[in-house]
Amino acid sequence: MASSACCNLYRKFKPHLLMILTQIGYTFLYFITEASFNHGMNPHVYITYRHIVAGFVMLPFAYFLERKTRPQLTVSVFVEIFILSLLGVGLTLNMYFASLRYTSPTFLASMVNTIASLTFVIAIALRLEVLNLRNPRGMAKALGTLVSLAGVTTMTLYKGPIMRNLWHPLIHIGGNTSVREDWLKGSVLTIASCVTWSIWYIMQAYTLKRYPAQLSLTTWMSFVGGVQSAVFTVIVEHKRAAWTIGFNIDFWSTLYGGVVCSGLIIFIQLWCTEEKGPVFVTMFNPLSTILVAILAYFVLGEKLYLGSIIGAVIVIIGLYLLLWGKDKDQGGRVESEEQSYSTSEGRNAEKQRVVTPSLRELPKAEA
């Protein structure tokens, strides 16, 4: 009896547990990549190697699990995949991880929360999203978007005083950290990457309708994005030594990013999206922000600025306002669909009651 109750409890909260684990995985990603970059690894080389690794990891799963359901890859679909790879990998992640050299893991983790708001703004501009300010749902979405953008502006323009550490760091990430001086440059790179990330989410929805094979699409994007990143890296990085990594933190960060983040975590998020929907998955994003801030400040002794704290709190408040509006919006849409469905069922039943007596009278008339 107790084991059955535990199993039911596990099934109920399995998506919650998995999403918490994904956010923990993303939290470690920030610090292991920061340590690798401080060790001297080029961010663009990291992106290239990471997605090549992810492509090879996802390839057998995509091939065997979607062998019967995978549609044919046409030229037009491949062009869409090429653009998706450019937005989601080649352009976005190169800007995103390059900004880590000028800002901090806490700042990057906070800025990720703005993707939902930016996606909503772009969707309205493309008329993919309807905004009705006459009901509470529409007001919550608009207010949440404005609050999130205000938080981004605060983090970008207001650095503020450094928060004093309470004790010496328990772990020290060594390496060259002198490059992290241009906060404005890093902020611009981060914001630009979040904008392209938002466009990627919107375009991905279109491509999935034409190519509804999530594992195969992820594999294609990993390989194509890795090639795009390699071409870009060859243009900006002329040192052949930059492509050489030893059996050190550079190797482990690349392996971790490819296998765990671009492979396992993406698969978990796809599963949770199918089970609970995208709103449920997005609601867990602020958890990594909190975890990164705690580890950066209390364990690693990272510099934490007052502007980052204030801006992150504002962004999270705006995010949950937006998600509340979207969640209620989806709930209202489902309720209206159910109501219309029940109405149509009632009409069909009424027609059936009208038609049935006349059909029953036919044999009598023939007799």
From TrEMBL:
Residues 330-367 are annotated as: Disordered. Residues 16-154, 185-323 form the EamA domain. It is found in: Membrane. The chain crosses the membrane at residues 17-33, 45-65, 77-100, 106-126, 138-158, 183-203, 215-235, 255-272, 279-298, 304-323. PANTHER family: WAT1-RELATED PROTEIN. SUPFAM superfamilies: Multidrug resistance efflux transporter EmrE (SSF103481). It is a multi-pass membrane protein. The lineage of its organism: Eukaryota, Viridiplantae, Streptophyta, Embryophyta, Tracheophyta. Coiled coil: none annotated. InterPro entries: EamA_dom (IPR000620), EmrE-like (IPR037185), WAT1-related (IPR030184). This is WAT1-related protein. GO terms for cellular component: plasma membrane. The keyword Thylakoid does not apply. One of its GO terms (molecular function) is transmembrane transporter activity. Its main location: membrane. Keywords: Membrane, Transmembrane, Transmembrane helix.
